[in-house]
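If your schedule permits, I should be very grateful for your opinion on a structural question. I have a record of one protein: its chain in single-letter code and its fold written as discrete structure tokens. Would you kindly read the sequence against the tokens and tell me how you understand this chain to fold? Thank you for your consideration; the sequence and its tokens are set out here.


***
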Amino acid sequence: MENCTMLKELVISLTTSTAKYFPTCIRTLTHLQNLRVDRYEDDQSFEEDMCIWAEALGKNISLSIKILSLDKNLNLNTEAFEKFLCQCYNRGIKNLCLMVDILRFIRRDEQIN
């Protein structure tokens, strides 16, 4: 499922401490608004997949679950996403430059829309 792959790439991008995944992260963000939980049978199976991906990456599962908490349809909300990135930073994801670039990208996209 293409959308699952994109979300997996986002989890990888946001939980890495290097900028090498930055292009993947931007590509994913441009498509994230079209990604809907209702492509799954239920929210639980979606959350289970998120947990599997996070575990496979050896990262904190709650980081991936935070993406789900933005809202049910996973539409990006800058304020909520900003808080999510702050939580990532506080948990040890220290590439602040990458986070700032992502936020700038989201804000630019919101202004266009």
Notes: The two ends are 27 Å apart (CA to CA). The helical segments are 2-14, 22-32, 43-56, 61-68, 78-90, 96-112.
